[in-house]
User: Fold these one by one.
Assistant:
Number 1:
Amino acid sequence: MFFASDNWAGASEPIMQALAQHNQGYSPAYGEDALTAHITQTFRDIFETDCDVWMVGSGTAANALALSCASEPGGAVFCHKDAHIRVDECGAPEFLSSGARMWGLDGRHGKLTPETIQQGFEEIPQGVVHHGMANAISLSQASEAGTAYSIAEIERISELAKQRDLALHMDGARFANALVSLDCSPAQMTWQAGVDMLSFGATKNGAWAAEAVVFFNRHLGRNFEYRRKRAGHLFSKMRFVAAQFDGYFKDDHWLDNARHANAMADKLVKGIETSPVAQLAWESQSNEVFVSLPHELAKRLEQAGAAFHEWPSNILARQDRPQAGHSLYRLVCSYRTREEDVQNFLRYLA
Amino acid sequence: MFFASDNWAGASEPIMQALAQHNQGYSPAYGEDALTAHITQTFRDIFETDCDVWMVGSGTAANALALSCASEPGGAVFCHKDAHIRVDECGAPEFLSSGARMWGLDGRHGKLTPETIQQGFEEIPQGVVHHGMANAISLSQASEAGTAYSIAEIERISELAKQRDLALHMDGARFANALVSLDCSPAQMTWQAGVDMLSFGATKNGAWAAEAVVFFNRHLGRNFEYRRKRAGHLFSKMRFVAAQFDGYFKDDHWLDNARHANAMADKLVKGIETSPVAQLAWESQSNEVFVSLPHELAKRLEQAGAAFHEWPSNILARQDRPQAGHSLYRLVCSYRTREEDVQNFLRYLA
Amino acid sequence: MFFASDNWAGASEPIMQALAQHNQGYSPAYGEDALTAHITQTFRDIFETDCDVWMVGSGTAANALALSCASEPGGAVFCHKDAHIRVDECGAPEFLSSGARMWGLDGRHGKLTPETIQQGFEEIPQGVVHHGMANAISLSQASEAGTAYSIAEIERISELAKQRDLALHMDGARFANALVSLDCSPAQMTWQAGVDMLSFGATKNGAWAAEAVVFFNRHLGRNFEYRRKRAGHLFSKMRFVAAQFDGYFKDDHWLDNARHANAMADKLVKGIETSPVAQLAWESQSNEVFVSLPHELAKRLEQAGAAFHEWPSNILARQDRPQAGHSLYRLVCSYRTREEDVQNFLRYLA
Amino acid sequence: MFFASDNWAGASEPIMQALAQHNQGYSPAYGEDALTAHITQTFRDIFETDCDVWMVGSGTAANALALSCASEPGGAVFCHKDAHIRVDECGAPEFLSSGARMWGLDGRHGKLTPETIQQGFEEIPQGVVHHGMANAISLSQASEAGTAYSIAEIERISELAKQRDLALHMDGARFANALVSLDCSPAQMTWQAGVDMLSFGATKNGAWAAEAVVFFNRHLGRNFEYRRKRAGHLFSKMRFVAAQFDGYFKDDHWLDNARHANAMADKLVKGIETSPVAQLAWESQSNEVFVSLPHELAKRLEQAGAAFHEWPSNILARQDRPQAGHSLYRLVCSYRTREEDVQNFLRYLA
């Protein structure tokens, strides 16, 4: 019953096989190998556009380096107040951008709204040197709360970004989970809706350490290669990242993994909805489920071997917080989650 | 005939096996797993001391983060003018330390001497705010030129460092190659000789992406964990680095790899010494060999499929530079280098 | 009728005289002159303790450099969401600290409360690398809203800071105005109440460009001299800053200036309280007055030559915002404000 | 006999008068005042072009902020190995540019040559991510050694800069001294010879704290305003800098000051040339004179009240170093140097 994080599973079999396959022979170092070129082309095929693609080893690196590309002196990035880039990356976006501010905005269930973005625009107006300048909006798709922006929502935010000449960044640590949830194409969920740059995550969905920054707006990423090296994120045996992506994309393995994780989350949701003691905190649109449980029950589950995290309820509006004696918990499914563990977990909630 | 770099080979078999073995099951993310703890203890056993150990994925990250730990405002690091940290890391040490200067000093064949360090002391005297302050000396063991410091040499430099209260850092991207060349213990080559912190490399010697920063002076590394995360170098599935180290250390695999690479380099040296056309540029004490070759011959070798790099001869003192019609070339052997390739290469030199 | 800012006046006469007086003769550069040493001692006398004192030329430099001294990798500074360091310094504290986050907290009328600080403690708990680490609390005395913390309030916040081992910083851009408002000693308002470091401002109160960072906790400022130089804030003719302080402190000129500015603000308050159209937004405890005025009236005042700024009402809790047709305005008095201008202004409000 | 530095004198009379004059009345803060606009126009008149002009308070700030404008990730600035930006600014250019490397090159008497620049080009070739990228060449005019580049020399270096698409920066801390020495126009010595940006110093030549960054290539400085504020270098009472420039430029006061200082240096040179014991180290083309003196004589001069600094002779090529028993000394004249002090000094050398 491992629902603590999609990071607790190792790498999936096809990815391990790809690693073994591409381990043969010699190959130029530092990303100048044929496999890296091939994977770059694969990204272009998948996204149906001539994007630039740079692979790195962690989601924090992908986000922080991407945002640094958009940041100018005194810069700020509008993001949700609970966004990973603001609260979970130890200041990496601020550090790698030499001081850009992650400007937290409100929004229910992890999602920015046009209204809260407008509020941000008032807080950092244009052309006032004292306030610095806003340079980007960053969305998490899926969000930290397991919800996903609809394409119309992304388009609306993109319009706002264009009005203020801001880059639109998507943190896609759980890109695949949102994609299969929306049932649309990668192009539709990104550049066709106005996204300029994407942190494309594979690690949480079955890889060891494989992330990519995808620039649909290629000008933004024009010196990314130098940023990556300067931050220590260019691997010498770069093909080991490319190899993971090879396994990830082959035969739609990535979509299968995401569909499985989401399906397991759906089963959790269904079980919670019929539970007399648990309450679904809000709708899930990915592989994350947030649930309000009595403390006693949570303790019993842990004793039974379930792994999952209590979640700070201050991410909720006051009126949405759990009732007395309950707390908020996060349950995350992964490509490896077994249905029997889900059923076992739900048995405690019945 | 692959002598371009020890980065061109993939991962060795025992390391691939360890990855597969530790891929089983769930495991806490972000380095809080049992395997990471086990590997930390292995390092302590190998170095015979209670050091702190932090794993990362690239040598540039290891060096730059380590040096940032010693850097104070206006800081400088004394290093050889050809040191990797100064010329080959795209300013990563400067960036991750928020501006420390890599202060290049002379020295034959890639090695600092007490005299050139003394010269550095004069260039950045103590207590003058305009000049900033020196914070560290960094040695590369083995050096960029394939040479190695003797233990007595390290001790002498350590004495100088102590005089000025400087941290002593060792860039051990090729630590194992130097170690087997000196035929001493890891403890002797590091903390017992006065080294405060070590970038311990495994990637060039058979891993995919596995490096560690080892703090013998634990105070220096007290907030390394935050530095690593802030720079995006904490992997979520951290055990994939630990697993590589597990395969690396098991049954002295790391020492075997290094011995093989050095032995192949020795064979190259022997062949060059008897060659009527090639000249050994200087003694090799690791897996790197520098040789002066006629341009024609170099071209012929490349046409025959040999991969190796011409090396800028400005790293040589003027009197040591290759004669007209010759250039300096670097030949690197790795754990994978085959003796038949060495013999084949030498046939062209005969 | 200049109420736009206390920065619109030039330097006061005693300060100009001190500049002329100390312009005579030669004097060592870069702060190694006798006058700088003398002023340092004057600070120690005024604060009744052996503090360290470093002069700079701008309040932003003072704040940002001071906070950088407390900042560790992944650091955060708790401050009011409207604090100057968070919204008015173009990211200088973030930049000069290499990425520390100014963590905005709520609080009525510009002041942090123990409750909102506690909330911050929950948002950045101790020992979780993902969230980084909190390093300091920063108070503005007087606050951006013209209010002042009582000594008991400072002490209470200091207790909280000690619990979490945070440095307590005071932004004293309007230190003198708060001091004469509280009618206490400089020592009482700072280190005796638990303040570790102070940005001591003179510019808004009659100097040209004279600020000082005062370290009561001297360990925090141990390498400030290098930080100041590294950021370009060490003046070669440093005595021109020291000279301003000489005029500032002589014969309690600084306290006279502040008392005058506060008295003028008091007269504005009195007039507003009896106005049938204007509403005092909240109590003033310094030289700043916030008032709600009908737009029409504000326009008429501007046409009559009054200079003052509309203030974003989003700094107010929703229930405190001005009624329809009104906006919030800030009126600032300085050492140079003339009583007749105050009376003239008030005539429009009657 | 004050020859220690041109920073030891205070401000000249016309500058003090301008400060007093512009102290009257109220004026918008943060550089939005009429005087700042007027001075900007004055710069354009003097340089006969539509440059952008940003005033700051220290030469280190001017240099470091200017260079940060040209710096990209992994950047490097070619400069003389003894350049102020490399050895005397405590790492400010590195810090404010987030890690750009000041890449020291050789050259006799403080001046870069086409040959040494070419050597730098080889050390940091284009398009190799490991080496980072060179972004600028920085010249000091006059140099740290008191010499000046001829216009032809500047043009030649500018050609090299254009070849590699590098910005050409001039550190003009002693701009006026070089200008009157060359007897050319400000336009000729800068943009007409290919200079992109200039640190224009007034402090050493009679101001308190007045420097400006002048962008002939306006694109380079497009967000300078934000850089200045973000580093704490925007003064609230900005007009106090503008006022100094008003006094500086009025009636060619700045040129008079520089001519006087250079003339005093010339007299020193003449005296040294006829001295039986002192040796002129090299030709002076500004207000700085470098001389080799017997230690005994230097000591006697100091006892007689002369202030001047011994200079590290490692700035000299080995063959140029002072003979045994002698050392190298720097003598600096300023607008305030009195002829009788020069004569008195020379009496000891006779």
Number 2:
Amino acid sequence: MLLEQRQKLLFIGDSVTDCDRAKPHGEGLFHALGNGYVSVVDAFLKANYPELGIRVVNKGISGNTVRDLKARWQEDVITQNPDWLSIMIGINDVWRQFDSPFIKDHHVYIEEYQETLTALVKESKLQTENILLMTPYYIEINENDLMRAKMDQYGKVVKQIAEEEGCLFIDTQAAFNKILKNLYAATIAWDRVHPNEIGHTILAKAFLNKIGFDWTK
Amino acid sequence: MLLEQRQKLLFIGDSVTDCDRAKPHGEGLFHALGNGYVSVVDAFLKANYPELGIRVVNKGISGNTVRDLKARWQEDVITQNPDWLSIMIGINDVWRQFDSPFIKDHHVYIEEYQETLTALVKESKLQTENILLMTPYYIEINENDLMRAKMDQYGKVVKQIAEEEGCLFIDTQAAFNKILKNLYAATIAWDRVHPNEIGHTILAKAFLNKIGFDWTK
Amino acid sequence: MLLEQRQKLLFIGDSVTDCDRAKPHGEGLFHALGNGYVSVVDAFLKANYPELGIRVVNKGISGNTVRDLKARWQEDVITQNPDWLSIMIGINDVWRQFDSPFIKDHHVYIEEYQETLTALVKESKLQTENILLMTPYYIEINENDLMRAKMDQYGKVVKQIAEEEGCLFIDTQAAFNKILKNLYAATIAWDRVHPNEIGHTILAKAFLNKIGFDWTK
Amino acid sequence: MLLEQRQKLLFIGDSVTDCDRAKPHGEGLFHALGNGYVSVVDAFLKANYPELGIRVVNKGISGNTVRDLKARWQEDVITQNPDWLSIMIGINDVWRQFDSPFIKDHHVYIEEYQETLTALVKESKLQTENILLMTPYYIEINENDLMRAKMDQYGKVVKQIAEEEGCLFIDTQAAFNKILKNLYAATIAWDRVHPNEIGHTILAKAFLNKIGFDWTK
Amino acid sequence: MLLEQRQKLLFIGDSVTDCDRAKPHGEGLFHALGNGYVSVVDAFLKANYPELGIRVVNKGISGNTVRDLKARWQEDVITQNPDWLSIMIGINDVWRQFDSPFIKDHHVYIEEYQETLTALVKESKLQTENILLMTPYYIEINENDLMRAKMDQYGKVVKQIAEEEGCLFIDTQAAFNKILKNLYAATIAWDRVHPNEIGHTILAKAFLNKIGFDWTK
Amino acid sequence: MLLEQRQKLLFIGDSVTDCDRAKPHGEGLFHALGNGYVSVVDAFLKANYPELGIRVVNKGISGNTVRDLKARWQEDVITQNPDWLSIMIGINDVWRQFDSPFIKDHHVYIEEYQETLTALVKESKLQTENILLMTPYYIEINENDLMRAKMDQYGKVVKQIAEEEGCLFIDTQAAFNKILKNLYAATIAWDRVHPNEIGHTILAKAFLNKIGFDWTK
Amino acid sequence: MLLEQRQKLLFIGDSVTDCDRAKPHGEGLFHALGNGYVSVVDAFLKANYPELGIRVVNKGISGNTVRDLKARWQEDVITQNPDWLSIMIGINDVWRQFDSPFIKDHHVYIEEYQETLTALVKESKLQTENILLMTPYYIEINENDLMRAKMDQYGKVVKQIAEEEGCLFIDTQAAFNKILKNLYAATIAWDRVHPNEIGHTILAKAFLNKIGFDWTK
Amino acid sequence: MLLEQRQKLLFIGDSVTDCDRAKPHGEGLFHALGNGYVSVVDAFLKANYPELGIRVVNKGISGNTVRDLKARWQEDVITQNPDWLSIMIGINDVWRQFDSPFIKDHHVYIEEYQETLTALVKESKLQTENILLMTPYYIEINENDLMRAKMDQYGKVVKQIAEEEGCLFIDTQAAFNKILKNLYAATIAWDRVHPNEIGHTILAKAFLNKIGFDWTK
């Protein structure tokens, strides 16, 4: 496993990360990590590696785009000084283009997305080399679906940044694609975005596999 | 316009019809018709034909399948003795097959759907010849999407029953397909089923056009 | 239709415009436009002209008089820079004179009304020539009713300003008068001011007809 | 004063009488008499004639018509065996004809009204001669207003029954007409039916004056 | 009647005056005057003298002592510039000495009470000569009761100030004493302080009688 | 101490006993004994005599009179088969005569009180000789107060029954009288009936002293 | 993996199983399986074996003992006819002996526990051979702790029944013991019974491992 | 008894002291002292020594450590200027080390604890010599339990400070240890920290005994 004793792992992102986590701290007693993939990751880290004492912090905020992350990066990431940083952002950047097509100010187009996300990663690399980039996703099997196609483009940007900046790359879209061969999207998420427990487990599995988690421990 | 003075028009269906209508009566003061297409239809009937005094009743119930309609047909339709009867059912019959694939008891397959809906229409024809059948729909442009394809099959059943039983036929799927050429599905409904005001207006327009409504009156 | 592609249409007014719209933005997801005539207008614009992509913003606030509009004109109108601006104000200016006759500070008399509304229109004309003035109204058929008579005077002021400043003029009182020949006021509004869905449809129709809306599209 | 020591005075009616009184008993601690004219009457009876110990019971129920009174007359009036009985009913009998004109089943026309009210009075006369009939009213000064005119007809029926059956007659419409010379209807009730404290005081005064209440005591 | 056309009458006091009045204005629509004696006074002023158009404002705040009144006198009285000012204060000044005997800071002893109330009256006399002083009270018939006896002392201070400063004096204790001959205290107020509708009517009657109200008008 | 190992002690009474205890069982986890004197008694029994394992059950119900106890005696006392039974009833029997003087049906006069309480005690004596009778009380120092005097009469009835039936007698009025020499009634209960923690402690002390509780244990 | 295509897996137990699952069905949309180990098991079954389509039902009810299970076995287990049945019961049977030591009726002692659980297993074996017995547990590392020691005895009963009846046996206490070497009990559950996400993950892991779940699939 | 007439006794601490006390004052009407040991102490002081008039103030805040006390010492203790000061702090200082072992910032280790508590005591000694130090506790009988052992160390620090600074010392752990010989911990507190009424009574008894309280008074 890549994580070492007493390290701090910070997740940041949108509603998929947030999942009703405790505000503002995002850690502590009473379900402070929310009820999504962050909580699943934390529970398995503690259950399988209790001796490591990994500290997990959730800084997701519902509705956030990368533009919103930029505005709070200093407070919510830099001052936290994490050993590991996981970023999953972009769903709202794309979604608003499709559910609010006429409110242009709410859209974050791909150039701004790429530029902003790159800058945030670069800034955090001054603190840690251990950055994980999770792609945004759309739980839709049809690659020609307009929003899925757009989301794939943003996903490619994430992959490119991961390669350029030496981050660990987690292809959440690929993880969902695999399950979509057997389950229709609505089994996981009515709106193709906010997953139920099955979907959050898929995200957690993708994350844990990437950091070399030993499931049989 | 097909409706005549003092006639009663009754809508029955699922959550798309229900829209938080008053229970159990489905008519009266204080938004008793709910906030969906039934309310839009009523408001335009009153606004354009106040002299006709059409009485509108909403008997939609969220989550209903045609199996549920059968169980309450006597109480909610027959004893109401409507002059006009509009039925839109089938979305949940199909949806449960896709969002709860392993709970077979919640599925209403196409044979039961056809048989039940036909029986209900036949029973109501003893009261009135003025029956409108609205297809179920799925706000998804891709005809090869599994749930859309299944919904189309149920829609064809509705069309067939309408032809056999001499009902007015309203193709709601076609109405949504037209708008989907310009607007992505998420602009109308995150879950492709429960529409916002735009979607309910599309349903109301399809209904009103079918009954010969004069918009310029 | 007068509105062109990608234009922004802003409504401002009192509770009839507000209708529980999202504060402070007045646009976006989840019924942000409220449940009144603004929402009906928006839904029909999207349903009949999806290719135009009109952006609708609702800045109504319950209880407002023209004096209140003045106080927030800079923030809620000017900085929004709309292509089309629709103003319906005056009901509370008059109503307080009749329901709170002894609290003079809550009354906005006709001189202040005319002066203030004129100034606001003039200020907005620096931004756009496309201004629609909707009269205040009182859903009361008796022209000799004291409050109806007073409201008519305020309506005449609106008409005069529209003519002087070259605005489109919408006579909402006339629209209600027409329906009142067939329906008693209480069918539309118990208090003769806050309409139900029928009344909001009448307002929306008056607005859409004025901008050359094609209902049969 | 007509009422004598230890007598029970029972009020029955619709929402104007109800005013959130305690259900089902309509008497007792904690504002059990509601916050309308019944409470004002009781408070003045206790304040001016504490030595009499009049027992006041409120059996009003919102939305009731005379048809509803009939259904509960046995339980809510006869078994209570009051010494004095005050009835104010008819507003909803009329109002539904004007706010829900197309739902005929909710209307109570004048023949049924007269017949039913007469029967109830006759039945109660077997218990007590002390019956007060209060007219329904509509707080609208224009006698030619359709609903006011209709309400006046129902009021005449009440007057006729009072004369035929030897009841005390209270003309609430006349009481409101007097105040409407100085105050516009909206100062008392936005919907011309549910009065504020001013209107309930007018009703209480009319009642108390009829029973020979000494205000200066 | 002492009050003249269009005059403003302001009440200030503690919870007995407050009675859930609208904050902060204390006047306007929707039961803004609360549900205590102020509302009764207002309703009778409007019902009997609608032509006068008296404006009533309620500035009571629960729990207040004269020390609290002093802190808000400028904002809640002076800037309101009333034509008539009614003050009822002192119950909490005394009550805290009896229900919280060991928290001395919450007590307002008689010297501070007299000094403060005198100063407030003097300050307001610069605006208006029409000041009514209502005594605090305790709904307890036993004059030797410790709290009743103390309250009587505060009442005497009020009387003295009224005489010295030429204010109208209303002896609320005397008004309650009279009714207590027939009704036990608990019939009016379980805690001997917060009256039900009977008690508020007694207060309103005492006030209205003092200003020459004509009940038979 | 009179109570022996594993005995069950059941309290029955009105709101003073109830104090929001768990319904219907009146024992168990999560403050099931309510927050009044029963809970204080239980806590001290457990704290000082943990080895005895006394089981305490609370069957108080707010508003009850002895007439109400009679109606539920079989279910709430007899079937519980307690080793010790404590009864405190009568406050509402008296109070209703003073706060609702004109609603005679709510009064339980002293003959009915004595007869009913005697019958209940006799019935329970078939099960256990360990019955404690607590007097009703009124936290008012003035013996000539009408309600206090009446309560004293009921208290004497309790004493008489205790003597006749061989029950332990607890004079709660005497316990309050003692503290009233130093504290005014309002320090313990605004309404002279529902005590705060001080008053419940006084009741618990009186009870515990009667059963020979060793405070210094 | 032991489970085969389309099989139904039913969990029954107490609050640890319940976890706010949907009542009464225990399956379906919207987190119907609750937020405990049942949900984790279901999510991993769906995520790793979507092609199997396992149907999971949760019939846990908070506070249940084996006595409660017996009362609802017919309705909640037998009529459900599951292919796999998992039972975890006994915590409350023991806990009540320690948190409510004096309320003997709430205790289920080991003889009744063994007899009842055996009978339930025998009854269900007529339907299916696939029964899993999970031990009750107490998250306390000290084996000499009185409640832990008692819980271990109940666990041994479960083991014995599993062996006698040929059930799969899951030692949840052993699973917790392992983690307790690294984490203090309070990290998993303040009350040593209701676990947080870490504890539920430990339970789910123990279950999944027993049925041959392939974590790396 | 050590406390003298009119003295102020202030309690400060964490959730065990807080118990939903009124914020911010911590004294006054309506259960302002919360429902824990502070309230029990106050009630017995008032019940047994009403003539002394001891003023009790509760400044406990849930979740506090000694670090939090330091931050509010000036406002919540010094400016209150109490005659007697009781401090019970340390449970959270220890607990966080056991329930949140990986969030080091939430831990207050023993050096910081000792240093901070000593400083606070020294500062308060400038005001009063009457300081009571209550140990933190853990309701766990096993002295080798890791958290109990740690809590004992903190308790020893409290004892040492009490001796060095001349404070009264209350060994709450010893008080609980005594009862734990007869009652299992869960009978007093499921989480071994937040006691029910039995536990709060034990704390109150320990406190009252230390100040020479006469229970038989």
